[in-house]
Amino acid sequence: MEKNWTPVTAAKGVEQALKIFDGKWKLVIMFHLFGGQVLRFSELEKAIPTITQKMLIQQLRQMEVDGVVRRIVHAQAPPKVEYALTDWGQALCPALDALLKWADLRENHDR
Amino acid sequence: MEKNWTPVTAAKGVEQALKIFDGKWKLVIMFHLFGGQVLRFSELEKAIPTITQKMLIQQLRQMEVDGVVRRIVHAQAPPKVEYALTDWGQALCPALDALLKWADLRENHDR
DNA sequence: CCGTATCCGACTAGATACTG
DNA sequence: CAGTATCTAGTCGGATACGG
């Protein structure tokens, strides 16, 4: 069945989608995890040197709640926690590609 | 020729694209103008009753600078100014659709 | 009709220090 | 290793009043 969008509801729909990767670091994190990569907390820290621990954990938690990231805890000492994208998270890739493609179009319309 | 993205540059690329419709009202405005609609300043105000004049003009100006909106001034009294999307602005539609489609996928992965 | 100018509260992210 | 807690500066949007 089809949805019938009004300008307002369509905008709200997109905003909902955007909110899920809104936050200064979520895209960077996602791109590090695309392709099925599984990284530890400390590996993400090293991969993104300018992020603080606070921001890293905050963004990861929100992404987990939103269902784009999976948190994998290994019960050991010392602690080991890994992060990976969910299937749904991986599925964002094509949409982001579309955005990149659109940004590239600008050259043809600018002067 | 192909670009070779790193996680960081890809994220920056998407962020650049996102910035262009970032701001609380830009998407709403765009959805009102999709399909070639041409609207006057006052018509946009009526179409989006909760926006203030300040925000409306601010978002429109930025969108104009960024090249997604075209400003059409008719030299008359009383003043008449119309706004429309550029070709590039219209070209955003598919990418936003991809985002909407992705958001819909969530049902299949949630429980 | 189509804007501009100013003030102000809310939210975000960074710095920093500390813990199981 | 993998977090938590607190404080603060900067940014964004809303309210309101005024101008060509």
UniProtKB/TrEMBL annotation, chains A, B:
Q: Does the keyword Secreted apply?
A: no
Q: Does the keyword Transcription apply?
A: yes
- Quote the Pfam families the UniProt record gives: HxlR
Q: Which residues form the HTH hxlR-type domain?
A: 6-111
Write down the InterPro entries for this protein, in alphabetical order.
HTH_HxlR (IPR002577), WH-like_DNA-bd_sf (IPR036388), WH_DNA-bd_sf (IPR036390)
Q: Which PANTHER family match?
A: TRANSCRIPTIONAL REGULATOR, TRANSCRIPTIONAL REGULATOR, MARR FAMILY
**What protein name is recorded for this chain?**
Transcriptional regulator, HxlR family
- In the record, what lineage is assigned to the organism producing the protein? Bacteria, Pseudomonadati, Pseudomonadota, Gammaproteobacteria, Chromatiales
